[in-house]
From TrEMBL:
<dbReference type="InterPro" id="IPR004291">
    <property type="entry name" value="Transposase_IS66_central"/>
</dbReference>
<feature type="region of interest" description="Disordered">
    <location>
        <begin position="48"/>
        <end position="105"/>
    </location>
</feature>
<dbReference type="Pfam" id="PF20042">
    <property type="entry name" value="DUF6444"/>
</dbReference>
<feature type="domain" description="DUF6444">
    <location>
        <begin position="2"/>
        <end position="98"/>
    </location>
</feature>
<feature type="compositionally biased region" description="Basic residues">
    <location>
        <begin position="75"/>
        <end position="88"/>
    </location>
</feature>
<dbReference type="Pfam" id="PF03050">
    <property type="entry name" value="DDE_Tnp_IS66"/>
</dbReference>
<dbReference type="InterPro" id="IPR052344">
    <property type="entry name" value="Transposase-related"/>
</dbReference>
<dbReference type="InterPro" id="IPR045618">
    <property type="entry name" value="DUF6444"/>
</dbReference>
<protein>
    <recommendedName>
        <fullName>Transposase IS66 central domain-containing protein</fullName>
    </recommendedName>
</protein>
<feature type="domain" description="Transposase IS66 central">
    <location>
        <begin position="174"/>
        <end position="439"/>
    </location>
</feature>
<feature type="compositionally biased region" description="Low complexity">
    <location>
        <begin position="58"/>
        <end position="72"/>
    </location>
</feature>
Amino acid sequence: MPDPHLLNPPQTLDEARTQIEQLWGVVGQLESIVSELKAQNEELVEQVRELNERMGKSSRNSSRPPSSDSTSQRANRKKKPRSTKRKGAQPGHEKHERPLVPESDVDQIQRYFPTAACGCGGSIFVDPEPRCRHQVFDIPVVRFSVIEHQLFGGQCNGCGKHHCAQTPDSVPSGQMGPNLVALIAHLSGRYHLSIRNIQDYLVEHWQLHFSLGALSQAQAKATSALGDPYRQIGDFVRQQPVAHADETRHFRGNECRWLWSLVCVQACYFLTQASRGKEAADRLLGEFTGYLVTDDYVGYNRVPESRRQLCWPHLIRKFIDIAGRVSNGGKIGRRLLLLAHAVIRTRHRWQDQLINEAVYYRRMQRLRRSFHQTLERGARLRIDGRTKRQCQHLLKRESMCWTFLKDHRIPLDNNSAERALRPYVIWRKLSFATQSYQGDQFRPLILSIVGTAQRIGISSYQFIRIACHQSMIEGEVKVRFPFDTPRLATS
């Protein structure tokens, strides 16, 4: 506040000069206060903008999972228009029937013949082949089998030394055979059952009573048996020309760890690690030299930009977030969103052979130029600092958005890795966290085995059963995944 004495009229010229200097000092103080208030106001406006954006975050405009959306956000999701067709089979559809099992594979055949005489008094000659074959499928009442191994001893009648028989190497050391060990591992990795639910299943269906610790030890035996096939998967994926990578949280007790995935067309490889840093990503990738499709996470920055493709659906969610902002930032976001959808649409038209390769690359180059110009305009924004920083960041990594133009095998999305992680996310919700290092090793291993078997079209249970049998009975696991000769699933 100004000095009250400044309000009195000066008596002399010197007093007037003194009051003027004091007034200029007060003006300077007021200017500094005003500038400070402006800075605080801008900071508060930015905080309010960020809080509003956080409140508006959903799975549509961020990397949050759909399960984290609020009730109102789920209600506002776009819903597919209701079909006008009736439920069930449509008129004129092709009929699908279960093929008949060959008679050689049928367990029992019951034949029915017509009466010997007709109503007119004549005799009936039976056809050599049945006119109708009706097969009924059922499952037998099952019970576990027990093999008791009795060891006898004896005493030498000469020296009196006691001798005892030894079990052969083919006899398992524990109380569980290889088929039971394989079943326990498969129920975990394929059907996401917890240890306690597996215990209940064995009691209900097989009348088998085992402790939780015994079931955990069975999983350890499966881990030992499947070690070589698991390493085969990792080596195979790292040798592929294109792979996808992603990661999700994994908990051991209350400690947060990470489950990493490296996925290709024929295999998926999982690895549990304590961190989400670059060192963990390096251990996952190993000697991988192909094209890597990921989100914009910096942990994969060891991969050169020339061999890395960013996921366009992740970019689209980011552009949806930017498009919801006001002023020029929202205009930039809407333009980027429009171009991103055009890229996806052009790619699909080329894959559906609606446009030829020359038109495809010409349109992509035009979209790429427009994309670059829009990012440059966003990087020069003066008001919306967050949009400006995001556009500057994308300009530095823009080349990774267009790596797919180098090789037609590179997809635009990282859906393959995200879908591979989905079974684990469900398992994590159903079975809680692991409690030991053994559990941390079992989960990625069994997920890799089951996921890879599904991708190449073989029975995951049969593969696990063979591996456990070779490990526990024969002493050497020789079974491997037939990556070069994929087959249809047998179950």
